[in-house]
Amino acid sequence: MQDHRSREVFVSSGSFATTSLWEMIDTAVVNGLPAIELSASLEPDPHFLDTLQQSRKHRLRYLVHNYFPASEDPFVLNLASSQSDIRNRSLAHCRLAIELSRALGAEFYSVHAGFAFDPAPGELGRRMHPAAVQDREEAYRIFLQSVHELTAHAAKNAVRLAIENNVLTCENAPQGKNSLLLMVEAEELLRLSEDVRSPYLGFLIDVGHLAVSARTLGFDPVQFLEMVGGKTLAFHLSVNDGRTDQNLPFDSTAWFIPLLKGFAHATMILECRPAPIGEIQSSRRAVAAALKGCQRQSKN
Length: 300
Prior knowledge:
The chain has helices at residues 21-30, 48-54, 84-104, 136-156, 186-196, 207-217, 221-228, 277-291; strands at 10-12, 35-38, 61-65, 108-112, 160-164, 201-206, 232-237, 267-270. With 300 residues, the chain is an alpha/beta fold. Helix 3 (84-104) packs parallel to helix 4.
């Protein structure tokens, strides 16, 4: 099925030098950035719905990612948690985000894959010190049930659910083995897709996460993309040193740029740390150039 909407590159709210929703929208409008992914970088705002509705006059397009809308009481969203209170809170947040995605006209809601333990908020992106680790198969079983529930809710709201690959650093993989994080390797994502079997489920592939995980576990990131490409709804784009997820802006020399033309069906999202607008625009131009001439198609 052809999709005739523009090939606009989305920019994550985390790329802006503000945590205020209003200020981010103003910066986006002034600088001609019409497509925004709303993420955890934004501070809690009890009036966020009013703000988003008022911004419609600017014809901005939105996606909703992971922790948005932000909670006054920070928590780690873990759809694989063995603790019912954490899992239930995670599911409730995701259901709300799916409904918000529908209200904003977004194609999908994206969320991080689960963990085989329950990290503290301050551990994310750093070395993890789990007090207790679940059996990975049990964690997968819980995660699968969560994805089943959320995919059904997404279907009712006519949006899709996109699961994002986790990032595994060497410090969190003793002896090069992954006991903590789900959905790091392509085989795991494909297993999930096979077990759920829903057209409303897909993947968001973070190429920064991919680069780090591939180095940690010694697999080929290009082969990973080839394996999951048909199920991929979107990409988070940034570069790093291969050791940590630095979320750096990039140019046309980034390793993934030549590969993007093979994913004309996917939504491209620039997910960099706060950067000058000129660097954001430069990265957007590199992606746009890579996609030039590609006709976007949606995959059922």
